[in-house]
């Protein structure tokens, strides 16, 4: 969401004071402030969806399999676990489905900084534009990190067990994860009307009400997984496949309402200090997406394919002329697995220095 309309509206509100010069003493106020607060992590109502099943095909041993872009989530994990159960291979893979069906991120409490520019409309009212920058970074939720690690570790045990059930040699299975955590910030740009409860004296209590936009600055955290398995089937033709998955939750910019109040204390006609408390209320809209891109080592001198004799089955192949691999293209790119929204409440407490001109 573009914050320019908010800034423009605030500028128009500030300029409204110009015709009143003959009636009241006009004054500008510029404040630089710092402080901190918290942003709640709202319960999100939304929809979840995973990529559909891939295309079915007949394996080299006459069983039925289907293609999947990854074993780590969705139908790929379901297919692999079905086969593991039927051949008695033991450990199954723990899918990422719970991670992909929710928001992976939240924002903790943190410090903030910003500025305010206001102009008197009358002795009682002022118009103001405010910009606040929250230093707290978006972070991956603890259950997400635990689920990613569980899926990573289960990939190794699942494929070691499955490969051991067939006539395969020189097996090697790896699985790694990479998390990009603590990224992005929130900013709040608002226009507001200030009601001064006193019009004389050094100490001025006031109330604030207005609206603006909450913008997420920079990228949000993400998680990734990379699994590889390789072996020689029947001792003479190689199989080597690579499974890569990445997932990210991102926040959409939204309008917010602002309300609050505080105290100004003027040390002189030109200088003062202020303590201010504000709450920003609006909808937080979060989406989670997943991408997956499998790769298979192709071999011309010794092409071959091996498949389980289960229904359904999993097939490993190093050459399409022999038969497809179950881990196969097309890749998944930024498929939205979750869309949700909830009411976000951000409270910010600041102290600042005011200069009048």
Number of distinct beta strands: 19
What share of the residues lie within helices?
A: 10-25%
Shape: rod-shaped
User: How much is the average pLDDT?
Assistant: 91
SSE order, as H and E? HEEEEHHEEEEHEEEEEEEEEEE
What structural class do you assign from the helix and strand content? mainly beta
Low-confidence stretches: 6-24
**Strand portion, in percent?**
over 45%
Rg (C-alpha, Å): 29 Å
CATH class: Mainly Beta
Distance between the termini: 33 Å
Strand arrangement within the widest β-sheet reads 1-6-7-10-11-14-15-19
The number of helical elements comes to 4
Would you mind describing this structure in some detail?
The chain has helices at 4-15, 74-87, 97-100, 142-164, and strands at 28-39, 45-48, 56-58, 64-66, 105-106, 110-120, 125-134, 139-140, 168-180, 185-196, 203-217, 222-233, 237-252, 254-266, 271-292, 295-296, 305-307, 315-317, 332-356. The longest helix has 23 residues, at 142-164. The chain has a single domain (4-356), classed as Beta Barrel (Porin). The strands form four sheets. An eight-stranded antiparallel barrel has the order 1-6-7-10-11-14-15-19. The chain has 357 residues and is mainly beta.
